C-alpha cells in the first residue's frame, strides 16, 4: 500500500526535548529521579496551581497502583472501578490481590454512572464489605460527573482515585482534571496528550503522601546507610531522561489541546448532517474536554451495511487507522467473574463506538482524506 498511513494519535516532538535530554547526559544523571524529574514535577505542580504534590513515575499504571497502596488497599479488599476504560485502570486492583467491582457508564459522559455507583456501594456494604476506593475515569478527555460522583464518595467516606490518564488539560467547572480525587493520576505514554515516552504521575494533596509515594517507588528503602527494607518496594520512579522529554513536551500542552479541539470541530461539522452518527461531546459548559481522542457512535441500519465495524473497514482500506472503543472490563475474560452493577450502556457504547484519527499533527490533507471516506461511506 503506497498511501501514507493516518494514525489514531501519534506523539509529536516539538524540538525542545533534546536540550533537556542533553542536560541529563551532560550531568551524567541517566538513572531514575534527578534534576529533570524534579523540574518536571515542579512544572506540573505549577500547572495545577492549588496545593498539589506531583510524583513523577514510570507509568500511569504504576501511579494507580501506588494510589491503591497509599489508600491501604490490601488482599481481599473491594475496589469500585468504572467498567468502560482501558485495562490499566483495573489491573492494579489485581496486583494488590483486591477485588474489582465494576460499574456501568451513564450515556451523557460515558463515564461511571452515579446511580449505579451508589447501588453498588450500598449492596457491597449490605454483603458485609465497604469498598476501599473508587476508580473513576475521564474517558477520552471528557470529565465524569464530578459533583455527583464525589458527593456519593463523600457520603460513604470512600476515597476516589481519579484516572486522568487521558484528560490532562480537561476541566470541570474551571477546575483541572487530576485535582478532584484523593489521588489523581496522569499518563505520559506515547499516545497521550503529552509524552515522556513512557511515564505517569501521581497527584496528591499532601507532602507526606508524595514522600510515601517516592518511598514506595524507589524500593521502600528505610533510613539507613546500608540497604534496609521493611516494606514491599517497587521500581516505579521516572527516569531523568524521560523527564527531559516531558520538560520539552509540556511546552506544547496548550497548542496540542488547541489542535485537538480543532480536530473535534472538524468532526462536528461533518457529523452534524449525518443522522446515524453521534459524536462524543461534552454535556454543557461546565465541562471542558481536551478531546484526546474523538469518538463516535454509529447507529447500525437494518442490513448492517452501516455499522461502526464497516466504517472501520472503509477507513482501513484507505490506510486510515480507527479503533473500537475500550471494551468494558466486565466483558473481559480476565475480569468477567467479578461483580458488576449496571445495565448495558457500556456494552452498547462498545458495540456502536469508534475512535477516529485525532493526532495533534493531522494535516489538512489528512482531514480531506478522512472526510472523503466518511462522505463516501454515508453516500453523501
Ligand atoms: C493510558 C491509560 C492508563 C495507563 O497509563 P500508562 O502510562 O500506559 O501505564 C490508565 N488509564 C487510562 C484510562 C489510560 O488511557
From TrEMBL:
This is DegT/DnrJ/EryC1/StrS family aminotransferase. Keywords: Aminotransferase, Pyridoxal phosphate, Transferase. One of its GO terms (molecular function) is pyridoxal phosphate binding. CDD domains: AHBA_syn. The active site is at 192 (proton acceptor). One of its GO terms (biological process) is polysaccharide biosynthetic process. The modification N6-(pyridoxal phosphate)lysine is found at residue 192. The keyword ATP-binding does not apply. It comes from the Bacteria. Belongs to the DegT/DnrJ/EryC1 family. The keyword Transferase applies.
Amino acid at each position: 500500500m503506497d498511501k501514507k498511513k493516518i494514525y489514531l494519535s501519534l506523539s509529536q516532538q516539538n524540538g525542545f526535548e533534546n536540550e533537556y535530554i542533553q542536560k541529563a547526559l551532560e550531568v551524567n544523571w541517566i538513572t531514575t529521579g534527578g534534576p529533570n524529574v524534579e523540574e518536571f514535577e515542579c512544572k506540573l505542580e505549577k500547572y495545577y496551581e492549588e496545593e498539589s504534590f506531583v510524583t513523577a513515575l514510570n507509568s500511569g499504571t504504576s501511579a494507580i497502583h501506588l494510589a491503591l497502596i497509599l489508600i491501604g488497599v490490601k488482599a481481599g479488599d473491594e475496589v469500585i472501578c468504572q467498567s468502560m476504560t482501558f485495562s490499566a485502570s483495573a489491573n492494579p486492583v489485581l496486583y494488590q490481590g483486591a477485588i474489582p467491582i465494576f460499574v456501568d457508564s451513564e450515556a451523557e459522559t460515558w463515564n461511571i454512572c452515579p446511580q449505579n455507583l451508589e447501588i453498588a456501594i450500598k449492596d457491597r456494604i449490605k454483603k458485609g464489605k465497604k469498598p476501599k476506593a473508587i476508580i473513576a475515569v475521564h474517558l477520552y478527555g471528557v470529565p465524569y460527573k464530578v459533583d455527583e460522583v464525589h458527593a456519593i464518595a463523600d457520603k460513604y467516606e470512600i476515597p476516589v482515585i481519579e484516572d486522568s490518564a487521558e484528560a490532562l488539560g480537561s476541566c470541570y467547572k474551571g477546575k483541572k482534571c487530576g485535582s478532584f480525587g484523593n489521588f489523581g493520576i496522569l499518563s505520559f505514554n506515547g499516545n497521550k496528550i503529552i509524552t515522556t515516552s513512557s511515564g505517569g504521575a501521581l497527584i496528591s494533596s499532601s507532602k507526606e503522601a508524595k514522600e510515601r509515594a517516592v518511598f514506595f517507588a524507589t524500593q521502600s528503602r528505610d533510613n539507613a546507610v546500608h540497604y534496609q527494607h521493611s516494606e514491599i518496594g517497587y521500581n516505579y520512579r521516572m527516569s531523568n531522561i524521560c523527564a527531559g522529554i516531558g520538560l520539552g513536551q509540556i511546552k506544547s500542552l496548550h497548542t496540542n489541546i488547541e489542535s485537538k479541539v480543532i480536530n473535534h470541530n472538524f468532526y462536528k461539522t461533518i457529523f452534524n448532517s449525518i443522522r446515524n452518527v453521534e459524536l462524543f461531546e461534552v454535556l454543557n459548559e461546565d465541562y471542558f474536554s481536551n478531546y484526546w481522542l474523538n469518538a463516535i457512535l454509529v447507529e447500525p441500519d437494518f442490513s448492517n451495511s452501516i455499522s461502526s465495524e464497516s466504517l472501520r473497514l472503509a477507513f482501513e482500506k484507505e490506510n486510515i487507522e480507527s479503533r473500537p472503543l475500550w471494551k468494558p472490563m466486565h466483558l473481559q475474560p480476565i475480569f468477567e467473574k467479578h461483580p458488576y452493577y449496571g445495565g448495558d450502556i457500556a456494552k452498547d457504547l462498545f458495540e456502536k463506538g469508534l475512535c477516529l484519527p485525532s493526532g495533534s499533527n493531522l494535516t489538512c490533507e489528512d482531514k480531506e482524506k478522512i472526510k472523503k471516506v466518511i462522505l463516501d461511506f454515508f453516500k453523501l
